[in-house]
Amino acid sequence: SSDSTPIRATLFPGDGIGPEIADSVKQIFKAADVPIEWEEHYVGDQIDPRTQSFLTWESLESVRRNGVGLKGPMATPIGKGHRSLNLTLRKELNLYANVRPCYSLPGYKTRYDGVNLITIRENTEGEYSGLEHQVVRGVVESLKIITRQASLRVAEYAFHYAKTNGRGRVSAIHKANIMQKTDGLFLKCCREVAEKYPEIKYEEVVIDNCCMMLVKNPALFDVLVMPNLYGDIISDLCAGLIGGLGLTPSLNIGEGGIALAEAVHGSAPDIAGKNLANPTALLLSSVSMLRHLNFNDKADQIQSAILNTIAEGKYRTADLGGSSSTTDFTKAICDHL
Amino acid sequence: SSDSTPIRATLFPGDGIGPEIADSVKQIFKAADVPIEWEEHYVGDQIDPRTQSFLTWESLESVRRNGVGLKGPMATPIGKGHRSLNLTLRKELNLYANVRPCYSLPGYKTRYDGVNLITIRENTEGEYSGLEHQVVRGVVESLKIITRQASLRVAEYAFHYAKTNGRGRVSAIHKANIMQKTDGLFLKCCREVAEKYPEIKYEEVVIDNCCMMLVKNPALFDVLVMPNLYGDIISDLCAGLIGGLGLTPSLNIGEGGIALAEAVHGSAPDIAGKNLANPTALLLSSVSMLRHLNFNDKADQIQSAILNTIAEGKYRTADLGGSSSTTDFTKAICDHL
Ligand SMILES: CC(C)[C@H](C(=O)O)[C@@H](O)C(=O)O
Ligand SMILES: CC(C)[C@H](C(=O)O)[C@@H](O)C(=O)O
């Protein structure tokens, strides 16, 4: 057991299968003696005027206070007059970089072997500005906003990540041949930062070409950094290479060192409450959270237990072709600890 | 030999390997007795003020007059004050739909078997509006424009294509959960057109999810229709599934029945003039052009000869792992006719 004072972390179990996979994390953290105390918050049942969404102000305050959190899938409630839960978190907590490691799981076969990619997505602006309007009837426009500040910030994060994680190359993904001003500014900022990291190889790749090369040979890439929408697209593409969003962790980095880890898959209401869900994405996200907190030993231990359990193949959930329940899979991971 | 009066078609051999692969088309058309007379046009060496690009007004007039053309790769000259050649063609000829069939080539192995997809891309607006400006220092914006007219037009083309080509399903690709107004209008138009084609299944798929599903299981899709940038991205991704842009045809459809077929790969200056280029993409594009002209027998004949030559594997260019020259590969196709 650990001698550190426990750290408080916010936990959003989320909707659908969220509570079951969050339970899996809690059990495994307990079995591994991780010195974390969870502060649980749920999506509210009415709009909080302070957040303009179903997320309560208190839950956001909890992440701000703790500086770190873990989030299950959240189903944005149907209806009008409120903001998406994901976007509220990103904007309110200023979660400027979304980091998604994507690597082949040993023993789980897909068409691709040895994938090992990191996508780093600008998470606050670009095509997600929310600025849209009708010019005249039948003509609408959306604004893509790129700022020097946000571009430098995410580029700096990407190069720093590459350096501290022993990664040799950063590729900036863009469409500056068409969007010369916006993507052009993004590239300019990446170049500026690249100069401060002469030991990291830097390249620029047009998004269409990047997607083609990723499906042909993902080994061509290492760390990829890009504006918001390209990150949305490419991180999902990369997840597809290794089996899907049920297997990939995600960590959002905010100003002031805030970190919110999250499973990016859906809430799967069809299997909710049936003890069938695969907790891998949330578990690996919790591992990313531990690394962010510098609990690297615990992170290594838990990650190995997850990967070994999947590799052995005896306990796998249905989405991976097995027939284990969430709790049996979780128990198997605990046994590996 | 054929008894029809010859049809005139414009040919842009293009730059780099363009003239060599265009020669391949010319030889094969001659060998197959295709009743087409080529009217050749080259990219000019200075800016034509009437087109604001290196494309001459006469060459655009040629396509307008003939109604049909074939285009090799064009390297946009370096420098300022002119428009990209591809964009000039799309805008000046109002090439509103870009159709890219993408199918596995028998005998040429990639990670994917039996791919059979058609991407239909809106080709005139969206993120390609060219409207960009700096708001204040360090803050830039690009405008994405979606119009009802262009969306209905491409949706209509997609459903008509599906119907006349025996395809059962059209998927509209979008990010309307974020760009509610622009992509929302695009979807609304697709839905309107879908109602007129009750025999075609219609679905809407978010672009990030679409990319994930395409790499996991491309058989989930059939015809995909989408705004400009998504089409740019997804058509390249699809090309990657079957081996790359060297193997996929492309046909642009314009108002008034104009059709411009094109190879969408680059001009490969490194191997230009060396008799090493693979003419497959331009050849298959010329087949698309023949189908557009209702020369279906000739199209079938030539397409089979190309696919059989590749399938046999005796004559393949270096990019497909062989060691044939462009001319030997071309001769092998002629022998198959
Ligand atoms: C749910 C949606 C708003 C979100 C996004 O587009 O960012 C999701 O796709 C993601 O990647 O987290
Ligand atoms: C060269 C470039 C402007 C073009 C595009 O973005 O449309 C190309 O990628 C294509 O798909 O034809």
Automatic annotation (TrEMBL), chains A, B:
<dbReference type="GO" id="GO:0006102">
    <property type="term" value="P:isocitrate metabolic process"/>
</dbReference>
<dbReference type="GO" id="GO:0051287">
    <property type="term" value="F:NAD binding"/>
</dbReference>
<dbReference type="GO" id="GO:0000287">
    <property type="term" value="F:magnesium ion binding"/>
</dbReference>
<keyword id="KW-0520">NAD</keyword>
<keyword id="KW-0560">Oxidoreductase</keyword>
<dbReference type="InterPro" id="IPR004434">
    <property type="entry name" value="Isocitrate_DH_NAD"/>
</dbReference>
<feature type="domain" description="Isopropylmalate dehydrogenase-like">
    <location>
        <begin position="8"/>
        <end position="333"/>
    </location>
</feature>
<dbReference type="GO" id="GO:0005739">
    <property type="term" value="C:mitochondrion"/>
</dbReference>
<keyword id="KW-0809">Transit peptide</keyword>
<dbReference type="InterPro" id="IPR019818">
    <property type="entry name" value="IsoCit/isopropylmalate_DH_CS"/>
</dbReference>
<dbReference type="GO" id="GO:0006099">
    <property type="term" value="P:tricarboxylic acid cycle"/>
</dbReference>
<keyword id="KW-0460">Magnesium</keyword>
<comment type="subunit">
    <text>Heterooligomer of catalytic and regulatory subunits.</text>
</comment>
<protein>
    <recommendedName>
        <fullName>Isopropylmalate dehydrogenase-like domain-containing protein</fullName>
    </recommendedName>
</protein>
<dbReference type="GO" id="GO:0004449">
    <property type="term" value="F:isocitrate dehydrogenase (NAD+) activity"/>
</dbReference>
<dbReference type="InterPro" id="IPR024084">
    <property type="entry name" value="IsoPropMal-DH-like_dom"/>
</dbReference>
<keyword id="KW-0479">Metal-binding</keyword>
<comment type="similarity">
    <text>Belongs to the isocitrate and isopropylmalate dehydrogenases family.</text>
</comment>
<dbReference type="Pfam" id="PF00180">
    <property type="entry name" value="Iso_dh"/>
</dbReference>
